[in-house]
Amino acid sequence: MQRYAQVVPLQAIRQVFTYSVPDDLAAAAVGVRAIIPFGRKLVTGVIVGFTDETPTQKLKPLWDVLDASPIWTKEYLDFTSWIAEYYFAPWGEVLRAALPQGMAAESDFRVVPIAKDLTDSATLFPEKRETKRELLLRLVAQNPAGIGMKALRKKMGTSALAAIIKECEAQGLVAVHATDVALRAKPKLVRFLRLSESLLYNADNLREAFDELEKHSPRQAAVAALLLEHYHKEKTGLPVAAITAKTGASSAALHRLVEKEYAVEYTIETIRSSFSQFADETPTPPNVVLNTAQRDAVTTLQSAVAEGTYTAFLLHGVTGSGKTQVYIEVIKTVLAQGRAVITLVPEISLTPQLIGRYRAHFGEQVAVLHSKMGIGERYDAWRGVQSGKHNVIIGVRSAVFAPVKNLGLIVADEEHESSFKQSDPPRYNARDCAVVRAQMQHAVAVLGSATPSLESYYNAATGKYRLLELPERADGALMPEVMAVNMRDARKKHEVRDSISFTLRDHIALRLKKREGIILLQNRRGFAPVQQCMDCGASPQCPHCSVTLTFHKVNNLLRCHYCGFTIPAVKACATCGSTDVKLFGAGTQRVEEDVVALFPDAKIVRMDMDTTSRKGSHKTILDSFGSGESDILLGTQMVAKGLDFPRVTLVGVINADTQMHLPDFRAGERTFQLLTQVAGRAGRTLAQLGEVIIQTSNPDEEAIKCALQHDFKSFYALELQKRRELMYPPYSRIIMVELKGKDEKIVQEHAGMLAKRIEPRKGSEILGPQQAPIQKLRDEYRWRILIKNNKDADPSGAIIRASVQRALDEYAAHHATRAVRVIVDVDPQGV
User: Which of 104, 300, 508, 792 is the least buried, fewest Cβ under 10 Å from its Cβ?
Assistant: First the structure.
């Protein structure tokens, strides 16, 4: 009986396609990757179902399948389908994001000449301009082995080739063949060589072989001797690379040994791992004693895990309260049940310490998934998870897609972090997806933070989540003393040198004298944010974005932190020609210089986007600081969370106001979170009381005042009142529709057309269209429509999502143009 598979191409296409299944593709099943003909290409898709309905038209067959058995379960596909529906994303785009890079293959078709007279096509019409058909035939004739569709499109300057090729194919002039499909992510096979059994187990043969080799091929004799010695020790062969390195033998020499049947070549798959960079982490002592609050939290979570049903918890613990140890104790219970665990962290910089602690307890069951891993490493780790070899997964937001089959617990550590939200398609929030995945797979979800997001704390307060609290530090250490330095007053009194107040300077000097660790936070990279003309006030602007360029002293460049555009720093104003151009503000590079000028003997390591681009750089920096090799760790928000260094007794915040006045309703919340988190890096042992010095020009702001007192609940109450009055989350859901394009007028017009099609619903408010705060990015102008939806009127958000989807469909049917891109961002982080 003919089968028909429903396949989702791993493309940004909102459709499921049906293909016939050839009889010889018995492995075709739900959850298997398949190669499908798609237009004039072969692409990877995922089989999501089968249908018994007889098609009304002839269907293309599946080209091949890539998996011997399903890589995803039906419930996993349901989870990705929910993400696609909730976040207005094509399902194939979500499935592609769920795969390691290199596991989605695309191939091309080649057009091959078959008619004998095709080679004369180039001279048939010398007196007139070639038609597209004639040009195509000439190009094909010039490539007897065939020419790919990509090359044809480029040389002919058009993508509309399908009809011409089909016509030529029907006339017997050309044939269309598919090229091989190549996957970038493959198992790593290592070539080995060992002596043949006829030599190993026959002394006469062995002696004769060595006599012949020593007489005629000394280099081959050296290889044979090495293989024999190694076999006696290890009972295995040696990698070819090791043999050539030790003996200097060429590949040809090794090949001749195999030809003579003196040696046998074989391959072994080698699992690539990034664990080598974490191998020297200090294990957590197994005899950690939990305090009362930790024990209560562990008991509650273990009971929930034992029930085997979905429950979501908010674990609210002050910095240093031992949330990680709570996770570890609960994970032990999950593994004892034969189930798996996913732990999400917001930053790659948080993984080294966490991996060290997890591996001390769970060894080879731990797998890491993050973007800094090589394609091969990530592929091998992913396969280890998919096969069940690894049951404890740690990773950044994409790890929410880890293909575990029996999920028991999913943890989102530092759940308040905005980096859990994906900024590129598909624009999912890993924290929220973690909760939904736990619900769909009957697992326990734990969101942990010292500074929970207002939405999560509100969910706990209203009973959607269960609240667990750790009000004290795990080992009885006291919370650090926090003080603010009013920089306006300090400048008036001339008590500031560059970016460092005298108060902070004196405290740094004291801690350096005691050989204690110091963390300095400046949440802005580069040297100085602005290079400004003192005569006319102009600053160099990015030609592609509506932002000023940031000065980087390294290489003396001005750089755009949005699109990467760089130019040499200006010596004269481009507007008025004045040479009176100065730098204003301070980034991490400038602060580093200021600290070096004050403390030339101190060893400083800087941790920001500019210093952590290389693989393993996070660990290198943190190891240097943690070991005491470096005295001061200076960085952006990377240094503010999750780090646990007992030697740190002083934290300094260079400028607490960098986020305060951004045009975002979460600006105050993020300022409070950042200050509280970085303050929590200080004084994490009983031996030392930590100190935190916050430099600010706005000491009366509620976010800063509450951070000084470690007072989350007061800040929560104050901020919640503002959100209620303005109908912002957690009282509403927000959908932001953004339109982008090269022509500002066209973008504005289309934003208006789309906004008119969104029907106002009870409890909803439509704002805009209006220009985005940064009007232009990467040469595209941006206009936004903001839809706020009251949760009381539409608790699930299904009504407003349906309304927005109808508007998008109508717009696409009547107004869509390639000149304007439409992007939908559900629950956006920057508003």
Answer: 792
